[in-house]
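Hi team,

Below is the intake form for DUF1348 family protein from Methylopila musalis. Please confirm the fields before the structure is written into the shared record.

FORM ID: S-0412
PROTEIN: DUF1348 family protein
ORGANISM: Methylopila musalis
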Amino acid sequence: MSARPPFPPFTAETAAQKARLAEDAWNGRDPQKVALAYTPDSVWRNRAEFVHGRDEIVAFLTRKWARELDYRLIKEVWAFTDDRIAARFAYEWRDDSGQWFRSYGNENWEFDAQGLMRRRLASINDLPIAESDRRFHWPQGRRPDEHPGLSDLGL
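The structure came back. Fields below:
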């Protein structure tokens, strides 16, 4: 099992680094790669779905990104303790009919000593938006450093 720095206990700086690394991985939309940041027995609650272990994480993310097209995500730390981070996020995506959404949510993360996430609890709400209301405009992949974050965008 590979270690994933930064490691607990977190500081404000390392919690922000961990959130940005998670954002970057999810924006890469590679389920196999994303799953490696979680313990083999990781437990998730995502909305009303419960996911257990890396194989289920891969299956979940594969389904998610097949449905949520042109996905772009921004994460921001809300609070942290030694081995836990609370993050808020927003992502924009469209469905196969062309309807755009901005999904808002909060996640609670718990990490092991190797920096792997062992628990992820996510609450998410979807807001239909007009394409002209989109705020996340960058090429698919990692959000550029100069692109505003959630607080800068008033989200």
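SUMMARY LINE: The radius of gyration is 15 Å.

Thanks, M.
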